Amino acid sequence: MRALLSVWDKTGLIELAKGLSAHGVELVASGGTAAALSEAGIAHLEVADVTGFPEMLDGRVKTLHPRLHAGILADRSKPEHLAALAEHDITAIDLVVSNLYPFDSNPSIELIDIGGPSMVRAAAKNHEHVGVLTSPSQYDAVLEEIVSTGTLSDATRHALARAAFAHTAAYDAQIVAWLDGGGALGEAPSDVDAVVPATLHLTLERASLVRYGENPHQIGARYRFAGTSPWWDGVTQHAGSALSYLNLFDADAAWRLVHELADDVPGQCAVAIIKHANASGAAVGASFADAFQKALDADAQSAFGGIIAVGGELNAALASLIAAGPQADVIIAASIQPDAIDILVKRRKATRLLSAPSPEPLGRSVRTFGNTALVQNADELLVPVSDWKCVTFATPTDQQLQDLAIAWRVCARTTSNAIVIARDGVAVGIGAGQQSRVVSAGIATTKASEFAQGAAAASDAFFPFADGLESLTSAGVTSVVQPGGSVRDQEVIDAANAAGIVMMLTGERHFRH
Question: How far apart are CA 457 and CA 444, in angstroms?
Fold first, then answer.
């Protein structure tokens, strides 16, 4: 049995080589791999000993040779292939161990691996006869199988081949992404091409299975972009049932919202309660207990079965408040004290208790349906409050601006058409997902009830008519923020002036579907 070793990442190499050699496997190694084996005192042949040709072009050409590739690609079931090997005195290669230059660590022309992918793909193509290892995580299981059975099973070689093609596909995707960004020439792409290049090569690796998809009859999983470590990788689950697809979807929305609110109102504690990716309540307060109670009071009925996100530590006092309220499916915080876990588990064992790091920034968004995908960059709130334009006779107070900022943030993270009413740091009324903006305004004012008096409101898009605004002012709302841009803007501004309220225009829309 012969193995060809040519790896950049030397993790586990010596242990694997020693195990193979002890089992009688002849080793062939190239470049730095051969040097590492020599230093460890492990007998091997160098690639040049097999090919009869030295490495050249600064190592660009060393394994690209028929005496290696024929040994990898020969179909042992075909007599003519075996005869060709014998005619040219070529020994078949049974195992290829190769991982590629770490292109994404320092993208450059010299880190575009050619020989490595060629060997890996050749071995993977011929996996009926050849095993191929592309990750140190595979070494122990493969070595154990070779030692115990003397060979690799069909199932193992098939699994290794699949992993190998995934490895080279991800590698090529990194190179394409680098070239999209200008590559070695350093020419920056256009603003459009930077977000939506001519082709998009996404490599996703399965991070974990989820309990089920959106519904129990659907299969679901969480994936991450290869080479990244999203915030979900740092989550610790302390208690509760396995997470489902919607648990992850909703918890992500909740976790991001509390961090955004904390940024919008520095020095305040933020809590959000999410149901179906929309807030039922969100608040900032002097403490997390204060913020939670305010968020809950905004819509306690809708909070049942929702996601509670606490933008800091969850202690026993807060846990007691949560336990006394509606049942939560997921509770997520930066950290959870042990006695708080005990309190919450006693309330309901199935509730998922998660502690998590801060979320990474949102990047490119990809949404698929059938064989079509829609791609866009993340929806960010680009216009700061200081750049909003006041278009009414009445001007905002500091408290109104803070409430308008909270309403605007929550509105941008709420399904369109969205209207959000906020007062004293609390989103007290949220109208979401309606075909009519007037209906959304009616839902928001109904939920806000008497708390709409003196409150601030946000609309994710412009008011096409004055009726939506009038629904808010008739409930007592005294300040409104909206994008503007309607042909009837002046009509709406006139209605705001007639009601004596403040109206601010942001100039940016935040639809969310």
Answer: 9
Q: Beta partners for 335? A: 313
Distances (CA, A) of 20 to 68, 279, 323, 496: 19, 58, 57, 80
Give CATH superfamily name and number for 2-177.
Methylglyoxal synthase-like domain (3.40.50.1380)
Kindly report the CATH number that applies to the domain delimited by 385-505: 3.40.140.20
* Secondary structure tally for the chain: helices H, strands E: 17, 21
Query: Is 233-355 a CATH 3.40.50.300 domain?
Result: no
The pairing of beta strand 2-5 with beta strand 95-97: parallel
CB atoms within 10 A of CB 487: 8
Query: What is the pTM assigned to this prediction?
Result: 0.85
- What string of H, E and C letters represents the secondary structure of 442-495? HHHHHHHHHHHCCCEEEECCCCCCCHHHHHHHHCCCCEEEECCCCCCHHHHHHH
The bridge status of strand 419-423 relative to strand 456-459 is antiparallel
Q: Do domains 233-355 and 385-505 have the same CATH topology?
A: yes
Torsion of CA 199, 200, 201, 202, to 10 degrees: -170
What's the pLDDT at 302?
92
- Interval 313-363: pLDDT, tens: 999 999 999 999 999 999 999 999 999 999 999 999 999 999 999 999 998
Q: Tokens for 135? A: 């990750």
Q: What whole-number distance in Å separates Cα of residue 379 and Cα of residue 385?
A: 17
Catalytic positions are 125, 276
As a dihedral over the C-alpha atoms of residue 27, residue 32, residue 36, residue 39, rounded to 10 degrees, the angle is: 110
